[in-house]
C-alpha cells in the first residue's frame, strides 16, 4: 500500500509539484537539444529505457544538463516513497535535508514524521521563491510542526546548526557534496543514515564525495542502483 496516497490533500499537492518539475526539466532539455521534436521524443524514450548507471553518460553525450537553480528539480515519486519508508523505519528525531528546492522531499519526510507523531526535518534552501512555495504547502497541509525551514546559503546554514541528526539527505549542486558533507559529518549521530541523490546522473561531479565515503573507516556505504543513483551510508 502507498500510505502517502491516503492523505488526499498531500497526494494532490505532490502530484502537482512532480508534474511541474517534470515539465520544467523537459523544457530545459528540449532547449539544449538541436534535433526535431520527433528526435527529442525518441531521445526521451531511449533515456527512459536505460538502467540508472547509464543515464548520466547519456545526458552528457547529448550535451544536456538540467543543473539550473531556477528549476524545481524535485525528486521522483519513487524516490519520495523510498525516503518516506526509510523515515518510518528509522523513526528519527532530526532529519537534515540539504537542498530542499520547493519542498517535495520535505513533504515526504514531514508526512512520515506526522504519522510517527514525532521528529522534525530541518529543510535548507537559498531561493526565497522556493522557500515561500515550500512553506505555503507545509502550512496548508498541517505539517508545519514537523518542519524547520532554514533560508539562506546551505554552507552558512549548516555551519550555524547546533542539532545532531539521525538522517541527512544531500541534494544540492553535485560539485558541493564533499565540501558540505565535511561540515555535516560532525553533526551526525552514530547509526545515522546518509542519503545522497544523483550519484549516477552527476557521477563525475560527485566522485570526490564517493571516494571519501568509500575510504572512510567509520562509514559503511554503497550506491543503490535506483533512480538517478542513491548513495546509502550508515555512520558506525
Task: Report on this structure.
The chain is α/β, with parallel strands linked by helices. The chain is 49% helix and 18% strand. The protein has helices at residues 8-32, 37-49, 52-61, 77-90, 104-116, 128-140, 154-159, 177-184, 203-215; strands at residues 94-98, 120-125, 147-151, 165-170, 188-196, 219-224, 230-235. Strands 3-2-1-4-5-7-6 form a 7-stranded mixed sheet, with helices on both faces.
Brief write-up:
The protein has 236 residues and is of the alpha/beta class. It is 49% helix and 18% strand.
Put simply, the count of helices is 9
What does the main sheet amount to?
Answer: 7 strands, mixed
Order of helices and strands: HHHHEHEHEHEHEHEE
Mean pLDDT: 93
Helix share of residues? Answer: 40-55%
Strand-residue proportion: 15-25%
CA-based shape: globular
Walk across the major sheet and give the strand order.
3-2-1-4-5-7-6
Q: What structural class results from the helix and strand content?
A: alpha/beta
CATH topology: Rossmann fold
Total strand count, please? 7
**Uncertain runs with pLDDT below 50, 5 residues or more?**
none
How many domain units? 1
User: What is the CATH superfamily label?
Assistant: Vaccinia Virus protein VP39
Q: Architecture, according to CATH?
A: 3-Layer(aba) Sandwich
Q: State the separation between the terminal residues, measured CA to CA.
A: 32 Å
Q: Radius of gyration from the CA trace?
A: 17 Å
